[in-house]
Amino acid sequence: MTRCFLDGRIVDQQSAGIALSDRGFTLADGVFETIRVRGGAAVDVQAHLERLGRALECLAFPQPGRSHHLALHLEETREANGMAEGVLRLTITRGQGARGLAPAPDAVPTLCITAAPLPSRPDSFTAIVATRTRRNEFSPLSRIKSLSYLDNVMALHEAGEHGADDAVLLNVRGNVACFTVANLVARFGRDLVTPPVDDGALPGTVRRRLLERLPIIELSLTPADL
Fold first, then answer.
1. Which of 56, 146, 184, 190 is an S-S bond match for 61, by CB 3.0 to 4.6 Å?
2. Which residues pair with 96 in a beta bridge?
3. Neighbouring C-beta atoms of residue 8, cutoff 10 Å
4. Looking at residue 202, what is its pLDDT?
5. How many other CB atoms sit within 10 Å of the CB of residue 223?
6. What is the 3 state secondary structure string of 78-115?
7. Backbone angles phi, psi at 78, to 5 degrees
């Protein structure tokens, strides 16, 4: 039986629920982090929590607790599921609110951590360049993992219609930003290149590790380059 952490306690994930007035449900007013579990431990927790903190600050959220408390909740969820390999998703919404865009000044954030098996990773995949939507590199939301992922959903649906596995998202200026759920690194001869964050690439945790360990160049790319 899968267990999750919801607002301070471990509960049965199948019977857990949030209020219909929760702004994460009504307005996608929230953020999330997806964290890999490998060898019985969550990977790069501090990097994920630092990005989460920047996202909460960007959206002017009340902080749900100190980062070490969130790390403990992640471990508590992992242990509750006996997970050695898998994925934890930490989701924070602004909490419940009345109809309208303005949040209540005393809103209490909803905090949820769920667990899931590790998805399979193919040796190769095919991709198209999405044409129906673009990633807005001018929006601060392009640099955080907000709950609003409909551009990515639309792009992936378009890929499926063409028999492809994924889609490359362009930004407003027509440069390459990313895949629907991953950063992009291209090889040109001996050079490794990845789009800069200013082009709408999410500052991913794996992307950060690669930039630290490999001579990857941050450079704007066009569909013609690919």
1. 56
2. 22
3. 9
4. 95
5. 11
6. HHHCCCCCEEEEEEEECCECCCCCCCCCCCCCEEEEEE
7. -60, -45
